[in-house]
């Protein structure tokens, strides 16, 4: 049986519910659920509000009460099949007497997968894959992290037209414009880790907090992580009380990501210097590049990325451009490029 027009509309609504403003981007996936009556009308809606709260299906079932019996549950993610901080949604749907379940994305998490089989074993009709691409995009970072067993890495940097991140005397303020710095804070807020190297902390002493348009810190801050083996002055600003911090005492990008993933982090915003960027690029551990290009030339100074070991043009690192934006209301006309790397 294929999905009905009512189920398709309900899935679009469920996706919108899952993306409700204020819902955390992790560590749990964002999920929406709509319960449809036999006539295709909505009986109840629900969505997941973050780790430890009711899952979308449980939220909708609680709102429906006895009216849930005989309904069709339209869910953006396969109902979970395990007991964590909340019970298994697949069993909750069975117990509520739901007749049919239509879900978009199959659960990639082996610990939670299998809900569809549980539902079918209980005699419930199940259809999967409705608007699956949209559902995966909704939780693209979570899906990537579960699929790959490591956080998604966004490398952000600012550069001049000739690829310089600082002048010959070491000055780098301001290669980027005020508008690009504000945009950077917007992107930082989408991640749960900001990562730099020990040299950046020792030399630049960054605060690494997310601030709003009035330069005020947000209430919820990403983890501030510094990577490298050298000892650091505990008085550096990254170790103040404005946000949680961790020193990853390794030079290996894979080890650093493994430790962050073990801490339940899924999206790393890489803001370190050229050496750290080169290490992640050479390890094939950059998944997205965001670069702010300033319309200026320096002719000398620090390169945006260190030596990648490339000696001939045919071996050049060629990421694919996915977006080009001239930042709005930027008198300096900085351009933001978003790119998807091809592995080197």
From TrEMBL:
Annotated pathway: Cofactor biosynthesis; riboflavin biosynthesis; 5-amino-6-(D-ribitylamino)uracil from GTP: step 3/4; Cofactor biosynthesis; riboflavin biosynthesis; 5-amino-6-(D-ribitylamino)uracil from GTP: step 2/4
Keywords: Hydrolase, Metal-binding, Multifunctional enzyme, NADP, Oxidoreductase, Riboflavin biosynthesis, Zinc
Keyword Transmembrane helix: no
Domain of life, source organism: Bacteria
Reaction it catalyzes: 2,5-diamino-6-hydroxy-4-(5-phosphoribosylamino)-pyrimidine + H2O + H(+) = 5-amino-6-(5-phospho-D-ribosylamino)uracil + NH4(+); 5-amino-6-(5-phospho-D-ribitylamino)uracil + NADP(+) = 5-amino-6-(5-phospho-D-ribosylamino)uracil + NADPH + H(+)
Protein's UniProt keywords contain Metal-binding: yes
Function text: Converts 2,5-diamino-6-(ribosylamino)-4(3h)-pyrimidinone 5'-phosphate into 5-amino-6-(ribosylamino)-2,4(1h,3h)-pyrimidinedione 5'-phosphate.
Protein name per its UniProtKB record: Riboflavin biosynthesis protein RibD
Species of origin: Nocardioides endophyticus
Gene behind this protein: ribD
């Amino acid at each position: 049986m294929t999905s009905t027009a009512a189920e398709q509309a309900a899935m679009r609504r469920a996706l919108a519910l899952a993306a409700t403003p204020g819902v955390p981007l992790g560590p749990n996936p964002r999920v929406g659920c709509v319960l449809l009556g036999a006539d295709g009308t909505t009986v109840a809606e629900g969505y997941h509000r973050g780790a430890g709260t009711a899952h979308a299906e449980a939220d909708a079932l609680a709102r429906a009460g006895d009216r849930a019996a005989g309904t069709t549950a339209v869910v953006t993610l396969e109902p979970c099949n395990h007991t964590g901080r909340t019970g298994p949604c697949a069993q909750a749907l069975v117990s509520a007497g739901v007749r049919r379940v239509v879900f978009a994305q199959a659960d990639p998490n082996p610990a939670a997968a299998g809900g569809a089989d549980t539902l079918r074993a209980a005699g419930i009709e199940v259809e999967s894959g409705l608007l699956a691409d949209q559902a995966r995009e909704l939780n693209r970072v979570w899906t990537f992290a579960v699929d790959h067993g490591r956080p998604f890495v966004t490398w952000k940097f600012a550069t001049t037209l000739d690829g310089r991140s600082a002048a010959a005397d070491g000055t780098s303020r301001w290669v980027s414009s005020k508008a690009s710095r504000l945009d950077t804070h917007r992107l930082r807020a989408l991640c749960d880790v900001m990562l730099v190297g020990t040299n950046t902390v020792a030399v630049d002493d960054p605060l690494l907090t997310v601030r709003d348009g009035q330069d005020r810190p947000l209430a919820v801050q990403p983890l501030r992580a510094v990577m490298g083996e050298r000892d650091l002055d505990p008085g550096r600003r990254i170790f103040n009380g404005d946000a949680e911090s961790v020193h990853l005492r390794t030079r290996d990008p894979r080890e650093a990501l493994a430790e962050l993933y073990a801490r339940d982090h899924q999206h790393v915003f890489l803001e370190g210097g050229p050496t750290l960027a080169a290490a992640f690029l050479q390890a094939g551990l950059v998944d997205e590049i965001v670069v702010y290009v300033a319309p200026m030339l320096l002719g000398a100074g620090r390169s945006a990325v260190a030596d990648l070991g490339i000696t001939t043009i045919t071996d050049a690192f060629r990421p694919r451009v996915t977006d080009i934006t001239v930042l709005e209301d930027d008198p300096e006309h900085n351009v933001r490029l978003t790119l998807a790397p091809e592995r080197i």
